[in-house]
Structures are given as C-alpha cells and as structure tokens.
Write a structure and sequence with these properties.
Layout: E1 2-6, H1 11-21, E2 32-39, H2 44-50, H3 52-76, E3 82-87, H4 90-100, E4 105-109, H5 123-131, E5 136-139
Parallel strand pairs: 1-2, 1-4, 2-3, 4-5
Helix pairs in contact: 4-5
Length: 140
C-alpha cells in the first residue's frame, strides 16, 4: 500500500503516529511511505526584508524540525520513508500531493497548530477532505 503521512509537528501528528504503531497493516515495512509537511509562508514583507537565502534556510530548518522526529520514529519500526516539504497553504498542498502521488491512503491528525481550527475538525483537515479524492484517515 502506498501511504502519505501528512504531519505538522502538533500533538495530533504524534497521536497519528501512535495510532499507526498499534495497527500492523498501516505500519508495515512492505508499505511505501511518504511523509509530507506543508510549511506556512512567511509574510511577503518579511521574506523581502530577510532575503531569499535566509528565508530558504529558515523553511528548511523549520521543516526539518517537523520531519526529523517522524523519520526517526519510522526508522525505529524498520521503515525508510521519503521525506518531503513545501511552502504554502497546508490543505491545498496536502490534497495536491495526495492526488499527484496516486496514494492509496492519506493519514493525518484531525487538528494541527492553527488557533483558528474548527470545533469538530481542523480547518486543514476540512480543506483536504473537500479537495482530495484519496481516502483519508483522520486520527483524533
């Protein structure tokens, strides 16, 4: 099975990984995993003031902080996953990546870091469900 894991470093991403570890079919070395992180964009003025090189380093460092623990977790379970990140709106990027990669399943936490999340389900999860035809497993 080809599985896309969407992560943001929140407690819900950690709960998603814990859920995977209790379900052998979802966390198995014979599955193909891609871990994806969407890094929020800095404001345009901040990007202009800092310069391209500094901004790129910032995005790479911040994405690494999210992806490295997930990579470590998966490697402990005998899984070598592809790690990817992009800068931009998370819901849109996750949905596009799931469709473009022709994944069998997208797994993500139901909420993230956003303080403006919906009461029942996070706003990113809502956007992904609205724009993605790939089956989605939301972990609460």
């Amino acid at each position: 099975m080809k599985i896309l894991l969407a992560v943001d470093g929140s407690s819900y991403s950690k709960k998603m990984l814990a859920y995977l570890s209790t379900h052998e079919a979802l966390l198995a070395p014979d599955n193909d995993y891609t871990v994806f992180h969407a890094e929020p964009s800095l404001p345009a003025r901040a990007r202009a003031a800092l310069g391209k090189s500094v901004v790129e380093d910032y995005y790479r460092e911040e994405s690494g902080k999210v992806l490295a623990p997930v990579d470590k977790f998966l490697r402990r379970h005998g899984i070598a996953a592809e790690l990817e990140w992009k800068m931009g709106p998370a819901g849109e990027l996750i949905g596009k990546r799931a469709e473009a990669g022709k994944f069998d399943l997208l797994v993500m936490g139901s909420h993230g870091h956003s303080a403006l999340g919906n009461l029942v389900m996070g706003s990113v999860a809502t956007q992904v469900l609205a724009h993605c035809k790939t089956p989605v497993l939301l972990v609460r």
